[in-house]
What we know:
Elements: E1 9-14, E2 18-24, E3 30-38, H1 41-58, E4 63-67, H2 74-81, E5 87-90, H3 92-98, H4 109-122, H5 133-166, H6 180-188, H7 192-197, H8 200-211, H9 215-235, H10 242-272, H11 278-288, H12 295-305, H13 314-320, E6 329-330, E7 333-334, H14 346-359, H15 371-380, H16 386-407, H17 416-432
Parallel strand pairs: 1-4, 4-5
Antiparallel strand pairs: 1-2, 2-3, 6-7
Helix pairs in contact: 5-10, 5-12, 6-8, 8-9, 11-12, 12-14, 14-16
Amino acid sequence: xxxxxxxxxxxxxxxxxxxxxxxxxxxxxxxxxxxxxxxxxxxxxxxxxxxxxxxxxxxxxxxxxxxxxxxxxxxxxxxxxxxxxxxxxxxxxxxxxxxxxxxxxxxxxxxxxxxxxxxxxxxxxxxxxxxxxxxxxxxxxxxxxxxxxxxxxxxxxxxxxxxxxxxxxxxxxxxxxxxxxxxxxxxxxxxxxxxxxxxxxxxxxxxxxxxxxxxxxxxxxxxxxxxxxxxxxxxxxxxxxxxxxxxxxxxxxxxxxxxxxxxxxxxxxxxxxxxxxxxxxxxxxxxxxxxxxxxxxxxxxxxxxxxxxxxxxxxxxxxxxxxxxxxxxxxxxxxxxxxxxxxxxxxxxxxxxxxxxxxxxxxxxxxxxxxxxxxxxxxxxxxxxxxxxxxxxxxxxxxxxxxxxxxxxxxxxxxxxxxxxxxxxxxxxxxxx
Length: 433
């Protein structure tokens, strides 16, 4: 049963420019049929008066519920939260499962608002009171960073595909086709014939300025360019028009990479500012203390997690990241090939996957980045499929994150046997006390 079973409840179905609101009386009857409010000062004040009216009539606080809709609900949510204590956001997965429980198929905003009010009043579901504005801003910047890196990756692939058509084997010259040296050459001479027609000294000058390497290296690269360009005039597609596309991809890549750099600087300025909460800074440092996690990844994880107090135990955090196993059972049948649910934060899961890969590697000097996880991966998970094994490593890392954030102490690598002994000793001491 919901904690607000005996309270008047308000259900809000949020859209981009307006919302529908339904109000239930404490006994569950419809107190106010669904009505429309605009997302402006007049609309918000009208809703405020309607909620105050029901609270004064029944002499009790109301509970307000709305569905998380990305950004559309944020202004209304923060307005109501500043004026009413019991203002909550419901996960769309919950509302989607409950909105149409009638036999007749009906779907409209008025019915959805009433359905949300009933869910909040009668069902004991997990509720959220949103995130702090600082976490919201950090999360927005971090997600924009990942979006830009994905866009950059897309244009890198386009550039590579075009080069394979017009300039075969160009990828064998530079270890990274989108390095400064490579892009500088392509920007000046985008086709094989342009390379062959260009003066040697100009190509050498471009390589020297962009690579900051010796003349010998530049001479070798020039000879490779000439060799590959001659072959490309024979085996490549004679489509000079692709040069326009190549130059377009290079220009867009430069703009995106400039924006990525600006975004990273803005994230650093935000975190280092005096107005940024110290508790969030501390949590970033705590996660950064875990081997395999860098500063940007730590920032990403904190931005996605928000307040750790919203998670009672590690399993809740596992589900939040969407790496919990889905369940497929019916009667005597129990599925044994269940995949990750992937219902949680996509960006957080992406960062966690990168941490798992880093945690089972070794440094250049041969030392393990995380000796405990590497040993666990090589011995305990030996024979498992690679993705299954990495999923288990991700579970372990979440346990680390939960532990350091809950105890507010930096991570410390311990042998599992020693850690188990310490746990049992502490448990016996607590029982004796």
